[in-house]
């Protein structure tokens, strides 16, 4: 009888721990982190932001010389980088996640 009660007790404790663990794992991601928007240029290691645009408009903008990576968050579908300062010449479509050599590009357009 004691053995049966002990097994039932262990089973109840195990199921309680499992239920609590699953409840924590099921917490919505939005409750844990905030969603980024717009476009962010980082240094080449993605550790230091060097330029943040909340709402890219497609206009030609100067690219900071320290920029070596970009992340297009929600609201961005493509980033085109240029070696010229005025967005002329051949543009490189970088998408929404890219790394590049700092100083390689001088301007960009984000859509």
Structure description:
The protein is of the alpha+beta class. Helices cover 25% and strands 26% of the residues. The protein contains 2 helices and 8 strands; from the N terminus they run ααββββββββ. The chain has helices spanning 2-25, 29-32, and strands at 39-42, 49-53, 61-62, 69-72, 79-82, 91-93, 97-99, 107-110. The chain has a 4-stranded antiparallel beta sheet, with no helix packed on it. Strands 3-8-5-6 form a 4-stranded antiparallel beta sheet, with no helix packed on it. A hairpin with an 8-residue loop joins strand 5 (79-82) and strand 6 (91-93). It is globular, with a radius of gyration of 25 Å. The model is unreliable at 16-33 (pLDDT under 50).
């Amino acid at each position: 009888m004691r053995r049966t009660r002990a097994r039932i007790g262990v089973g109840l404790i195990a199921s309680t721990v499992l239920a609590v663990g699953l409840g924590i794992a099921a917490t919505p991601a939005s409750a844990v982190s905030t969603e980024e928007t717009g476009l962010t240029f980082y240094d080449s290691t993605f550790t230091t932001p060097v330029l943040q645009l909340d709402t890219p408009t497609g206009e030609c903008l100067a690219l900071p010389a320290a920029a070596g990576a970009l992340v297009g968050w929600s609201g961005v579908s493509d980033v085109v980088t240029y070696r010229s300062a005025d967005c002329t010449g051949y543009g490189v479509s970088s998408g929404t996640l890219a790394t590049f050599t700092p100083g390689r590009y001088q301007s960009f357009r984000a859509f």
